[in-house]
Design a protein that fits this description.
The structure is a single chain. It contains three helices and no strands. The chain is mainly alpha-helical. Helix 1 packs antiparallel against helix 2. The N and C termini lie far apart (about 30 Å).
Length: about 70
């Protein structure tokens, strides 16, 4: 549950950064985005976690990646 909370916080940072109303160049967002994506790569659910936990987490990340590509 804590992992999901952290994922939501990081997703909020990403979505705020790619919002069209954000002032300044988008190149400032790239290091922060790389950092979050890198931590997501390292932070997976445990092997013994239920498949629904994996599905929820990876579906959420896919949703965020789609928003990044659209933005």
């Amino acid at each position: 549950m804590f992992q999901q909370f952290i994922e939501i916080q990081e997703s909020q940072q990403i979505l705020t950064g790619i919002a069209p109303t954000t002032q300044g160049p988008r190149t400032q967002l790239i290091p922060e985005l790389k950092s979050i994506i890198s931590s997501w790569r390292e932070r997976l659910p445990n092997k013994w976690d239920d498949i629904n936990m994996w599905n929820d987490l990876l579906s959420w990340r896919q949703h965020i990646f789609t928003a990044i590509n659209a933005g």
